[in-house]
Design goal:
- By secondary structure, the protein is of the alpha+beta class.
- It folds into 4 domains: 165 residues, MoaB/Mog-like domain (Molybdenum Cofactor Biosythetic Enzyme, Chain A, 3-Layer(aba) Sandwich), CATH 3.40.980; 57 residues, Molybdopterin biosynthesis moea protein, domain 2, CATH 3.90.105.10; 87 residues, Molybdopterin biosynthesis moeA protein, domain 3 (Beta Complex); 72 residues, Beta-clip.
- Helix content is 16%, strand content 32%.
- Strands 7-4-6-5-9-8 form a 6-stranded mixed sheet, with no helix packed on it.
- Helix 1 packs parallel to helix 6 and helix 3 packs parallel to helix 6.
- The chain is elongated and about 95 Å long.
- The two termini are 42 Å apart.
Length: 419
Protein backbone atom coordinates (compact mmCIF):
# COMPACT_ATOMS: atom_id res chain seq x y z
CA UNK A 1 0.00 0.00 0.00
CA UNK A 2 1.39 3.40 -0.99
CA UNK A 3 2.04 6.27 1.38
CA UNK A 4 0.44 9.64 0.63
CA UNK A 5 3.81 10.92 -0.62
CA UNK A 6 4.24 7.92 -2.92
CA UNK A 7 0.70 8.30 -4.26
CA UNK A 8 1.30 11.98 -5.01
CA UNK A 9 4.56 11.12 -6.76
CA UNK A 10 2.73 8.55 -8.88
CA UNK A 11 0.07 11.09 -9.85
CA UNK A 12 2.63 13.73 -10.77
CA UNK A 13 4.55 11.19 -12.80
CA UNK A 14 1.50 10.09 -14.79
CA UNK A 15 -0.46 13.31 -15.29
CA UNK A 16 0.83 15.55 -18.07
CA UNK A 17 -0.05 19.26 -18.38
CA UNK A 18 -2.36 20.28 -21.19
CA UNK A 19 -0.96 22.00 -24.27
CA UNK A 20 -1.03 25.79 -24.23
CA UNK A 21 -3.90 27.60 -25.93
CA UNK A 22 -5.19 31.19 -26.18
CA UNK A 23 -7.80 32.05 -23.55
CA UNK A 24 -9.89 35.25 -23.42
CA UNK A 25 -8.75 37.38 -20.50
CA UNK A 26 -12.29 37.46 -19.11
CA UNK A 27 -12.19 33.65 -18.74
CA UNK A 28 -8.66 33.29 -17.37
CA UNK A 29 -9.22 33.52 -13.60
CA UNK A 30 -7.31 30.73 -11.85
CA UNK A 31 -5.39 29.67 -14.97
CA UNK A 32 -1.60 29.69 -15.25
CA UNK A 33 -0.06 32.04 -17.79
CA UNK A 34 2.37 30.22 -20.09
CA UNK A 35 4.52 33.14 -21.35
CA UNK A 36 6.30 36.09 -19.78
CA UNK A 37 4.27 39.32 -19.89
CA UNK A 38 5.93 42.53 -21.10
CA UNK A 39 4.24 45.91 -20.75
CA UNK A 40 3.46 47.80 -23.97
CA UNK A 41 2.71 51.05 -22.10
CA UNK A 42 3.95 53.27 -19.32
CA UNK A 43 1.65 53.13 -16.32
CA UNK A 44 0.39 55.65 -15.65
CA UNK A 45 0.84 56.89 -19.24
CA UNK A 46 1.17 60.50 -18.03
CA UNK A 47 1.72 62.42 -14.81
CA UNK A 48 -1.71 62.30 -13.17
CA UNK A 49 -3.59 63.79 -10.24
CA UNK A 50 -4.28 61.48 -7.33
CA UNK A 51 -7.19 63.51 -6.00
CA UNK A 52 -9.51 66.39 -6.81
CA UNK A 53 -7.90 69.78 -6.28
CA UNK A 54 -5.74 72.36 -8.02
CA UNK A 55 -2.53 71.79 -9.99
CA UNK A 56 0.05 74.36 -8.93
CA UNK A 57 3.73 75.16 -8.81
CA UNK A 58 4.93 73.90 -5.43
CA UNK A 59 7.14 76.96 -5.06
CA UNK A 60 4.01 79.18 -5.04
CA UNK A 61 2.67 77.30 -1.99
CA UNK A 62 5.93 76.52 -0.24
CA UNK A 63 4.67 78.29 2.89
CA UNK A 64 1.24 76.62 2.74
CA UNK A 65 -0.66 79.81 1.87
CA UNK A 66 -1.23 81.47 -1.49
CA UNK A 67 -3.72 83.32 -3.66
CA UNK A 68 -3.73 82.07 -7.25
CA UNK A 69 -5.58 82.64 -10.50
CA UNK A 70 -7.52 79.67 -11.89
CA UNK A 71 -6.90 79.44 -15.63
CA UNK A 72 -8.66 76.20 -16.63
CA UNK A 73 -10.45 73.09 -15.43
CA UNK A 74 -9.42 69.61 -16.61
CA UNK A 75 -11.35 66.40 -15.98
CA UNK A 76 -10.21 62.77 -16.26
CA UNK A 77 -10.09 61.78 -19.92
CA UNK A 78 -9.29 65.32 -21.09
CA UNK A 79 -5.99 67.04 -21.82
CA UNK A 80 -5.03 70.51 -20.48
CA UNK A 81 -4.84 73.17 -23.18
CA UNK A 82 -2.60 75.54 -21.20
CA UNK A 83 0.54 75.47 -19.09
CA UNK A 84 0.70 76.55 -15.47
CA UNK A 85 3.01 79.43 -14.65
CA UNK A 86 3.87 81.07 -11.33
CA UNK A 87 0.71 82.61 -9.87
CA UNK A 88 -1.56 80.20 -11.80
CA UNK A 89 -3.60 77.17 -10.73
CA UNK A 90 -5.65 74.71 -12.72
CA UNK A 91 -8.63 72.91 -11.26
CA UNK A 92 -8.08 69.17 -11.78
CA UNK A 93 -10.01 66.00 -11.18
CA UNK A 94 -8.68 62.67 -9.92
CA UNK A 95 -6.94 60.79 -12.73
CA UNK A 96 -6.58 63.81 -15.04
CA UNK A 97 -3.21 64.66 -16.65
CA UNK A 98 -1.05 67.19 -14.82
CA UNK A 99 -0.61 70.32 -16.98
CA UNK A 100 2.85 71.44 -18.05
CA UNK A 101 4.54 73.63 -15.49
CA UNK A 102 2.63 72.22 -12.50
CA UNK A 103 4.46 69.92 -10.11
CA UNK A 104 1.99 69.43 -7.24
CA UNK A 105 -1.73 69.19 -6.47
CA UNK A 106 -3.40 70.97 -3.56
CA UNK A 107 -6.43 69.16 -2.21
CA UNK A 108 -9.80 70.73 -2.87
CA UNK A 109 -10.54 70.71 0.86
CA UNK A 110 -7.57 73.05 1.46
CA UNK A 111 -8.83 75.75 -0.90
CA UNK A 112 -11.54 78.37 -1.16
CA UNK A 113 -12.67 79.29 -4.69
CA UNK A 114 -14.19 82.57 -5.84
CA UNK A 115 -15.96 81.89 -9.14
CA UNK A 116 -16.47 85.56 -9.97
CA UNK A 117 -12.79 86.41 -9.91
CA UNK A 118 -11.53 82.89 -10.78
CA UNK A 119 -9.33 83.05 -7.71
CA UNK A 120 -8.49 80.48 -5.07
CA UNK A 121 -7.17 81.02 -1.58
CA UNK A 122 -5.03 78.18 -0.33
CA UNK A 123 -4.52 77.38 3.33
CA UNK A 124 -2.59 74.11 3.62
CA UNK A 125 0.52 72.46 4.92
CA UNK A 126 3.64 73.57 3.04
CA UNK A 127 3.55 72.04 -0.43
CA UNK A 128 6.53 70.28 -1.97
CA UNK A 129 7.03 69.01 -5.55
CA UNK A 130 5.29 65.70 -6.30
CA UNK A 131 2.56 66.02 -3.67
CA UNK A 132 -0.73 64.33 -4.63
CA UNK A 133 0.38 63.26 -8.08
CA UNK A 134 1.88 60.16 -9.69
CA UNK A 135 4.56 60.45 -12.33
CA UNK A 136 4.43 58.68 -15.68
CA UNK A 137 5.73 55.10 -15.54
CA UNK A 138 5.76 54.93 -11.74
CA UNK A 139 4.18 51.46 -11.59
CA UNK A 140 5.20 50.11 -15.00
CA UNK A 141 7.46 51.18 -17.82
CA UNK A 142 7.07 50.18 -21.46
CA UNK A 143 9.18 47.08 -22.16
CA UNK A 144 9.32 46.13 -18.48
CA UNK A 145 8.53 42.57 -17.36
CA UNK A 146 5.16 42.49 -15.62
CA UNK A 147 5.44 38.88 -14.41
CA UNK A 148 6.93 35.62 -15.53
CA UNK A 149 5.39 32.50 -17.03
CA UNK A 150 3.92 30.20 -14.39
CA UNK A 151 1.99 32.90 -12.55
CA UNK A 152 -1.46 31.85 -11.36
CA UNK A 153 -3.95 34.47 -12.51
CA UNK A 154 -5.87 36.06 -9.65
CA UNK A 155 -8.18 39.07 -10.06
CA UNK A 156 -5.28 41.51 -9.61
CA UNK A 157 -3.18 39.78 -12.29
CA UNK A 158 -6.14 39.97 -14.66
CA UNK A 159 -6.41 43.69 -13.99
CA UNK A 160 -2.73 44.24 -14.78
CA UNK A 161 -3.03 42.16 -17.95
CA UNK A 162 -5.95 44.33 -19.04
CA UNK A 163 -3.87 47.43 -18.31
CA UNK A 164 -1.14 46.25 -20.68
CA UNK A 165 -3.59 45.21 -23.39
CA UNK A 166 -3.52 41.41 -23.08
CA UNK A 167 -7.09 40.65 -24.11
CA UNK A 168 -6.05 37.01 -24.65
CA UNK A 169 -3.49 35.06 -22.66
CA UNK A 170 -1.51 31.87 -23.37
CA UNK A 171 -2.61 29.31 -20.80
CA UNK A 172 -3.77 25.74 -20.35
CA UNK A 173 -7.52 25.29 -20.47
CA UNK A 174 -9.73 24.17 -17.62
CA UNK A 175 -10.17 20.40 -17.33
CA UNK A 176 -13.68 19.00 -17.69
CA UNK A 177 -14.28 16.76 -14.69
CA UNK A 178 -17.12 14.23 -14.66
CA UNK A 179 -18.63 13.38 -11.26
CA UNK A 180 -20.42 10.06 -10.76
CA UNK A 181 -21.82 9.00 -7.39
CA UNK A 182 -22.49 5.29 -6.95
CA UNK A 183 -24.76 3.32 -4.65
CA UNK A 184 -28.32 2.02 -4.32
CA UNK A 185 -28.68 3.97 -1.07
CA UNK A 186 -28.44 7.35 -2.83
CA UNK A 187 -31.34 9.56 -3.87
CA UNK A 188 -31.20 12.99 -5.54
CA UNK A 189 -30.89 15.98 -3.22
CA UNK A 190 -34.42 17.11 -4.12
CA UNK A 191 -35.98 13.87 -2.86
CA UNK A 192 -36.84 12.74 0.67
CA UNK A 193 -34.82 9.61 1.56
CA UNK A 194 -36.71 6.43 2.25
CA UNK A 195 -35.68 3.66 4.65
CA UNK A 196 -31.96 2.96 4.32
CA UNK A 197 -31.41 5.85 1.90
CA UNK A 198 -29.40 9.08 2.00
CA UNK A 199 -29.22 12.13 -0.24
CA UNK A 200 -26.44 12.43 -2.82
CA UNK A 201 -24.41 15.10 -1.02
CA UNK A 202 -21.04 14.00 -2.43
CA UNK A 203 -21.95 15.07 -5.96
CA UNK A 204 -22.68 18.65 -4.89
CA UNK A 205 -19.63 18.81 -2.63
CA UNK A 206 -17.26 17.46 -5.29
CA UNK A 207 -18.66 19.79 -7.94
CA UNK A 208 -17.94 22.73 -5.64
CA UNK A 209 -14.41 21.49 -4.94
CA UNK A 210 -13.83 21.12 -8.68
CA UNK A 211 -14.94 24.69 -9.35
CA UNK A 212 -12.81 25.97 -6.51
CA UNK A 213 -9.83 24.14 -8.03
CA UNK A 214 -10.41 26.01 -11.31
CA UNK A 215 -11.94 23.18 -13.36
CA UNK A 216 -15.41 22.58 -14.84
CA UNK A 217 -17.62 19.87 -13.32
CA UNK A 218 -20.00 17.74 -15.34
CA UNK A 219 -22.53 15.95 -13.13
CA UNK A 220 -23.57 12.44 -14.17
CA UNK A 221 -26.00 11.73 -11.36
CA UNK A 222 -26.21 8.37 -9.58
CA UNK A 223 -25.04 4.97 -10.81
CA UNK A 224 -26.79 2.03 -9.20
CA UNK A 225 -24.97 -1.02 -7.83
CA UNK A 226 -25.65 -2.91 -11.02
CA UNK A 227 -22.96 -3.55 -13.61
CA UNK A 228 -24.75 -2.49 -16.79
CA UNK A 229 -25.97 0.79 -15.28
CA UNK A 230 -22.55 1.56 -13.77
CA UNK A 231 -20.82 0.62 -17.04
CA UNK A 232 -23.01 3.00 -19.04
CA UNK A 233 -22.31 5.94 -16.72
CA UNK A 234 -18.58 5.21 -16.60
CA UNK A 235 -18.47 5.17 -20.40
CA UNK A 236 -20.07 8.65 -20.46
CA UNK A 237 -17.64 9.98 -17.85
CA UNK A 238 -14.59 8.73 -19.72
CA UNK A 239 -15.29 11.29 -22.45
CA UNK A 240 -14.10 14.02 -20.05
CA UNK A 241 -10.56 14.92 -19.07
CA UNK A 242 -11.07 13.36 -15.64
CA UNK A 243 -13.67 11.15 -14.01
CA UNK A 244 -14.32 11.19 -10.27
CA UNK A 245 -16.41 8.33 -8.91
CA UNK A 246 -17.67 8.43 -5.36
CA UNK A 247 -18.23 5.09 -3.64
CA UNK A 248 -17.91 1.49 -4.73
CA UNK A 249 -14.11 1.22 -4.38
CA UNK A 250 -13.78 -0.86 -1.18
CA UNK A 251 -13.81 -4.65 -0.95
CA UNK A 252 -17.54 -5.26 -0.49
CA UNK A 253 -19.71 -7.47 -2.65
CA UNK A 254 -21.26 -4.47 -4.42
CA UNK A 255 -18.05 -2.45 -4.75
CA UNK A 256 -18.00 -2.81 -8.52
CA UNK A 257 -16.06 0.30 -9.54
CA UNK A 258 -12.49 -1.11 -9.80
CA UNK A 259 -13.50 -4.10 -11.94
CA UNK A 260 -15.73 -2.01 -14.21
CA UNK A 261 -13.01 0.58 -14.71
CA UNK A 262 -10.51 -2.06 -15.65
CA UNK A 263 -13.09 -3.67 -17.99
CA UNK A 264 -13.43 -0.26 -19.67
CA UNK A 265 -9.70 -0.23 -20.40
CA UNK A 266 -8.62 2.05 -17.56
CA UNK A 267 -5.09 1.19 -16.47
CA UNK A 268 -4.80 1.04 -12.70
CA UNK A 269 -1.95 3.04 -11.17
CA UNK A 270 -2.74 2.38 -7.52
CA UNK A 271 -5.54 1.16 -5.26
CA UNK A 272 -5.46 1.97 -1.53
CA UNK A 273 -3.25 4.47 0.24
CA UNK A 274 -2.08 4.61 3.86
CA UNK A 275 -4.33 7.51 4.81
CA UNK A 276 -7.27 8.13 7.12
CA UNK A 277 -9.86 8.88 5.97
CA UNK A 278 -9.68 7.62 2.40
CA UNK A 279 -7.74 4.34 2.39
CA UNK A 280 -9.68 2.69 -0.53
CA UNK A 281 -8.87 5.44 -3.09
CA UNK A 282 -8.29 4.19 -6.66
CA UNK A 283 -6.40 5.97 -9.45
CA UNK A 284 -6.02 4.97 -13.08
CA UNK A 285 -5.68 6.24 -16.65
CA UNK A 286 -7.56 5.62 -19.87
CA UNK A 287 -5.10 6.07 -22.73
CA UNK A 288 -6.18 7.77 -26.01
CA UNK A 289 -8.63 5.69 -28.02
CA UNK A 290 -9.81 5.70 -31.63
CA UNK A 291 -12.73 7.94 -30.67
CA UNK A 292 -10.76 10.26 -28.34
CA UNK A 293 -7.36 11.87 -28.73
CA UNK A 294 -6.50 12.57 -25.10
CA UNK A 295 -6.16 10.73 -21.83
CA UNK A 296 -8.82 10.49 -19.15
CA UNK A 297 -7.59 10.38 -15.56
CA UNK A 298 -9.85 8.46 -13.18
CA UNK A 299 -10.18 8.64 -9.40
CA UNK A 300 -12.34 6.26 -7.46
CA UNK A 301 -13.03 8.12 -4.22
CA UNK A 302 -14.44 6.45 -1.10
CA UNK A 303 -18.15 7.01 -0.58
CA UNK A 304 -18.00 8.35 2.97
CA UNK A 305 -18.20 12.10 2.51
CA UNK A 306 -15.19 13.21 4.55
CA UNK A 307 -13.09 10.51 2.86
CA UNK A 308 -14.21 11.87 -0.49
CA UNK A 309 -13.48 15.46 0.56
CA UNK A 310 -10.00 14.65 1.91
CA UNK A 311 -9.01 12.48 -1.06
CA UNK A 312 -10.07 15.21 -3.45
CA UNK A 313 -7.95 17.80 -1.62
CA UNK A 314 -4.90 15.52 -1.51
CA UNK A 315 -5.03 13.69 -4.82
CA UNK A 316 -7.63 14.89 -7.33
CA UNK A 317 -6.77 18.57 -6.82
CA UNK A 318 -3.11 17.71 -7.41
CA UNK A 319 -3.99 16.08 -10.74
CA UNK A 320 -6.22 18.99 -11.78
CA UNK A 321 -3.55 21.56 -11.02
CA UNK A 322 -0.95 19.45 -12.82
CA UNK A 323 -3.13 19.46 -15.95
CA UNK A 324 -3.47 23.24 -15.66
CA UNK A 325 0.29 23.76 -15.37
CA UNK A 326 0.47 24.97 -11.77
CA UNK A 327 4.12 25.34 -10.70
CA UNK A 328 3.53 23.28 -7.54
CA UNK A 329 0.30 21.34 -7.97
CA UNK A 330 0.69 19.12 -4.91
CA UNK A 331 -0.58 20.21 -1.46
CA UNK A 332 1.61 22.81 0.23
CA UNK A 333 1.46 22.15 3.99
CA UNK A 334 2.38 24.69 6.62
CA UNK A 335 3.43 24.21 10.23
CA UNK A 336 0.99 25.40 12.86
CA UNK A 337 0.89 25.33 16.66
CA UNK A 338 -1.79 23.26 18.35
CA UNK A 339 -4.21 25.34 20.37
CA UNK A 340 -5.16 22.47 22.68
CA UNK A 341 -4.31 18.91 23.65
CA UNK A 342 -5.09 16.33 20.97
CA UNK A 343 -5.02 12.54 21.35
CA UNK A 344 -4.33 10.69 18.09
CA UNK A 345 -4.92 6.95 17.82
CA UNK A 346 -4.84 5.35 14.37
CA UNK A 347 -3.01 2.72 12.36
CA UNK A 348 -2.65 5.24 9.52
CA UNK A 349 -1.62 8.89 9.20
CA UNK A 350 -4.80 10.90 9.82
CA UNK A 351 -5.89 14.14 8.17
CA UNK A 352 -8.13 15.49 10.90
CA UNK A 353 -10.57 18.33 10.05
CA UNK A 354 -9.37 21.45 11.85
CA UNK A 355 -9.81 25.18 12.22
CA UNK A 356 -6.70 27.14 11.19
CA UNK A 357 -6.33 30.72 12.43
CA UNK A 358 -3.57 33.28 12.13
CA UNK A 359 -2.48 34.92 15.36
CA UNK A 360 0.31 37.28 16.36
CA UNK A 361 2.70 34.40 16.95
CA UNK A 362 1.87 32.64 13.70
CA UNK A 363 -0.63 30.01 12.53
CA UNK A 364 -2.60 28.15 15.21
CA UNK A 365 -4.68 25.03 14.56
CA UNK A 366 -7.52 23.51 16.55
CA UNK A 367 -8.83 20.03 15.55
CA UNK A 368 -12.62 19.99 15.46
CA UNK A 369 -14.80 17.47 17.27
CA UNK A 370 -14.99 14.87 14.51
CA UNK A 371 -16.63 11.44 14.60
CA UNK A 372 -15.07 9.89 11.53
CA UNK A 373 -15.38 9.68 7.78
CA UNK A 374 -19.19 9.88 7.67
CA UNK A 375 -19.32 13.01 9.88
CA UNK A 376 -19.56 15.71 7.22
CA UNK A 377 -21.27 18.11 9.63
CA UNK A 378 -18.04 18.51 11.62
CA UNK A 379 -16.20 19.79 8.55
CA UNK A 380 -18.45 22.86 8.47
CA UNK A 381 -16.45 24.10 11.47
CA UNK A 382 -13.15 23.38 9.70
CA UNK A 383 -11.14 25.16 7.02
CA UNK A 384 -8.15 22.83 6.96
CA UNK A 385 -6.89 19.39 7.93
CA UNK A 386 -4.15 18.67 10.45
CA UNK A 387 -1.87 15.68 9.89
CA UNK A 388 -1.28 13.31 12.81
CA UNK A 389 1.06 10.32 12.29
CA UNK A 390 0.05 6.72 12.79
CA UNK A 391 0.19 5.33 16.31
CA UNK A 392 -1.03 6.34 19.76
CA UNK A 393 0.24 9.74 20.75
CA UNK A 394 -0.84 12.74 22.80
CA UNK A 395 -0.01 16.14 21.33
CA UNK A 396 0.27 19.02 23.77
CA UNK A 397 -0.69 22.67 23.19
CA UNK A 398 2.09 24.53 21.43
CA UNK A 399 3.43 21.51 19.55
CA UNK A 400 3.56 22.01 15.78
CA UNK A 401 1.91 19.82 13.19
CA UNK A 402 1.53 19.94 9.41
CA UNK A 403 -1.69 21.57 8.18
CA UNK A 404 -3.20 21.77 4.70
CA UNK A 405 -5.74 24.49 4.06
CA UNK A 406 -8.79 23.33 2.13
CA UNK A 407 -9.09 25.02 -1.22
CA UNK A 408 -5.50 26.31 -1.11
CA UNK A 409 -2.58 25.35 -3.27
CA UNK A 410 -2.67 27.88 -6.11
CA UNK A 411 0.87 26.88 -6.97
CA UNK A 412 2.30 29.27 -4.41
CA UNK A 413 3.49 29.14 -0.82
CA UNK A 414 0.75 30.02 1.67
CA UNK A 415 0.97 33.63 2.73
CA UNK A 416 1.11 34.47 6.41
CA UNK A 417 -1.25 37.37 7.08
CA UNK A 418 -0.01 40.21 9.23
CA UNK A 419 -1.24 40.04 12.82
Amino acid sequence: MLTVSEALTAILGEVHPFATTRVPLSEALGLVIADDVISDVDSPPFDKALMDGFAVLAADVAEGRATLRVIEEVAAGRVPSQSVSSGDAMRIMTGAPIPKGADAVVRLEETEFDGKSSTIWISAQPVSPGVNLMHRGTTLKRGESVFRAGRVLRPQELGVLAEVGKYEVPARCRPRIAVLATGDELVPVCETPGPGQIRNSNEIMLAAQIRRAGAEPQLLGIARDERSHLRERIHTGLDCDMLLLSGGVSAGKLDLVPSELEAAGVRRIFHKVQVKPGKPIWFGILEPQEDRSSRCYVFGLPGNPVSSLVCFELFARTAIHRLMGYPRPEPQPIRARLAETHIARSDRPTYHPAQLNWEAGGPVVRPVNWHGSSDLRATVDANAMALFPAGDQTFEPGETVEVIEWGSGMGEEPTTPSP
